[in-house]
Amino acid sequence: MIKKANFPSKLCCSCGRPFVWRKKWEKIWTEVKYCSKKCKKIKVKKEL
Ligand SMILES: [Zn+2]
What we know:
- The chain is an alpha+beta fold.
- Helices cover 23% and strands 12% of the residues.
- The protein has a two-stranded antiparallel sheet.
- Bound molecules: zinc ion.
- Residues 12, 14-15, 17, 34-36, 39 line the site of zinc ion (ZN).
Protein backbone atom coordinates (compact mmCIF):
# COMPACT_ATOMS: atom_id res chain seq x y z
CA MET A 1 0.00 0.00 0.00
CA ILE A 2 1.30 3.40 -0.96
CA LYS A 3 -0.07 6.07 1.27
CA LYS A 4 2.10 9.13 1.54
CA ALA A 5 1.29 12.77 1.94
CA ASN A 6 -0.03 14.37 -1.22
CA PHE A 7 3.09 16.27 -2.13
CA PRO A 8 3.50 17.33 -5.74
CA SER A 9 6.15 15.61 -7.83
CA LYS A 10 8.23 16.37 -10.91
CA LEU A 11 10.57 14.64 -13.30
CA CYS A 12 14.25 15.46 -12.98
CA CYS A 13 15.58 17.25 -16.07
CA SER A 14 18.88 15.40 -15.74
CA CYS A 15 18.19 11.78 -14.80
CA GLY A 16 14.51 11.73 -15.75
CA ARG A 17 13.43 10.18 -12.48
CA PRO A 18 10.44 11.48 -10.55
CA PHE A 19 11.12 13.29 -7.32
CA VAL A 20 8.78 14.59 -4.68
CA TRP A 21 8.34 17.98 -3.12
CA ARG A 22 10.61 18.71 -0.19
CA LYS A 23 10.37 21.21 2.59
CA LYS A 24 13.58 22.93 1.50
CA TRP A 25 11.99 23.66 -1.90
CA GLU A 26 8.74 25.11 -0.64
CA LYS A 27 9.61 28.63 -1.83
CA ILE A 28 11.30 27.67 -5.10
CA TRP A 29 9.32 24.59 -6.13
CA THR A 30 8.33 26.09 -9.50
CA GLU A 31 12.03 26.62 -10.28
CA VAL A 32 13.26 23.21 -9.18
CA LYS A 33 14.30 21.09 -12.16
CA TYR A 34 16.67 18.53 -10.70
CA CYS A 35 16.23 15.89 -8.02
CA SER A 36 19.61 16.61 -6.46
CA LYS A 37 22.70 18.77 -6.56
CA LYS A 38 24.43 15.91 -8.31
CA CYS A 39 22.00 16.02 -11.22
CA LYS A 40 22.29 19.77 -11.44
CA LYS A 41 26.06 19.45 -11.78
CA ILE A 42 25.74 16.82 -14.50
CA LYS A 43 23.46 19.11 -16.49
CA VAL A 44 25.85 22.04 -16.12
CA LYS A 45 28.73 19.90 -17.33
CA LYS A 46 26.81 18.89 -20.43
CA GLU A 47 26.10 22.50 -21.30
CA LEU A 48 29.73 23.59 -20.99
ZN1 LIG B 1 18.00 13.60 -11.11
